[in-house]
Amino acid sequence: MMHSTCISIPPLPQTIDGNDFFDHRCVWVNGPVIVGAGPSGLSVAAALKQQGVPFVVVDRADCIASLWQHRTYDRLKLHLPKKFCQLPNFPFPEDFPAYPSKFQFISYLESYANHFDITPRFNETVQSAKYDETFGLWRVNTLSLSPKPTQVEYICRWLVVATGENAEKVMPEFEGMEEFGGHVMHACEYKSGEAYHGKRVLVVGCGNSGMEISLDLCNHDAKPSMVVRSSVHVLPREILRKSTFEVASSLMKWLPLHIVDKMLLAIARLVLGNIEKYGLKRPSMGPFQLKNATGKTPVLDIGALQKIKAGEIKVVAGIKKFQRGAVELVNGEVVEIDSVILATGYRSNVPSWLKENEFFSSDGIPKSPLPNGWKGKAGLYAVGFTRRGLSGASLDAINVAQDIAKSWNEETKQTSKSVAARHRRCISHF
């Protein structure tokens, strides 16, 4: 990754704890700046490496894939088979199971970064990124507090936003939460149900995380109640020993999406039974139509539904308000609880730092629908916002790298020709 310091600016008159000054540097990047060192950022970096394009990767965390390393529960496994989750040009080890664990996936990502010699700049939080129309360049400002408070301004022709759809946790507010008195956490802080043995736990949310955390709590002899506020599609993870996703993908090559959805729901009814009588109402739109329209992923069941049917996971209505040691539901029922786990999802944080309003919407997702959501104007790109998981991020990364490489090679040739012309003029002069 080639870059060079272009300007040295004296320290700004700002202090940390009243006795330390910010160091301030400006760095020219001879290639793109990639914001985010998760699977999306690594995929772009690797693809650029193969194209011979230099780059800089910055990340606010202290490691690659911090979401996976710091904000996931221990029992987590990939929801799709590994062949649908591998990053470009680097397959999973053959001895990995079909559905690798969280720890195996982290190991794979670390091997990926080592294989392509990707060395992100960690502990650098992007405070702002803005396109300078006067010079036709991006100005990306970061702040690092360790080992010394440092502000860096990266100047580059291309900016790749790879922070993804899950950068920040969503923390809903409920009436009476301050009166509850029990332990409340977001799912990103949950590791295992071991600490909840015998406890009454309210899990807010019924997506894949809410279902799996409820299952994990059951397996550790806790007593979970799962809040189902809206409709949800639950599908078997496999159909006839094949991934449901794989079956659906194959069918969609030949049949319209709404027909595929009907077939999947018929199979789900045969395999799982009528889930609505257990409080799990299905949406009116089919599972893959819904995912394409809203990004809401169907739940792939790995055992939680059996626990619901057995009464070990209690499905409850939406929350009206909390009270001391209990929660009142919208149907008037009061449930006594010891702890709350908010499996309420994540959101993009792009609007907080990217000073741009044409390509990204106010919720931090590209405005352009598939397949055009990876490229904006003036050298702005996005990877990992397709709502198509790791496979979608990989496709984005390849497109972005090829597009940047084309521009970079053209500009490099023009620069080389210009330098050669100046060199010839100098020789003729002497």
Automatic annotation (TrEMBL):
EC number: 1.-.-.-
InterPro entries, per the entry: Auxin_biosynth/cation_transpt, FAD/NAD-bd_sf, Flavin_mOase-like
Species for this entry: Cucurbita maxima
GO aspect biological process, one term: auxin biosynthetic process
SUPFAM superfamilies found in the cross-reference section: FAD/NAD(P)-binding domain (SSF51905)
MF terms (GO), sorted A to Z: flavin adenine dinucleotide binding; indole-3-pyruvate monooxygenase activity; N,N-dimethylaniline monooxygenase activity; NADP binding
Gene: LOC111479822
Annotated protein name in UniProt: Flavin-containing monooxygenase
One Pfam family here: FMO-like
Keywords, in A-Z order: Auxin biosynthesis, FAD, Flavoprotein, Monooxygenase, NADP, Oxidoreductase
PANTHER family registered for this protein in UniProt: FLAVIN-BINDING MONOOXYGENASE-LIKE PROTEIN (AFU_ORTHOLOGUE AFUA_4G09220), INDOLE-3-PYRUVATE MONOOXYGENASE YUCCA7-RELATED
Cofactor field: FAD
Protein's pathway: Plant hormone metabolism; auxin biosynthesis
Gene3D superfamilies on file: FAD/NAD(P)-binding domain
Catalytic activity, as annotated: indole-3-pyruvate + NADPH + O2 + H(+) = (indol-3-yl)acetate + CO2 + NADP(+) + H2O
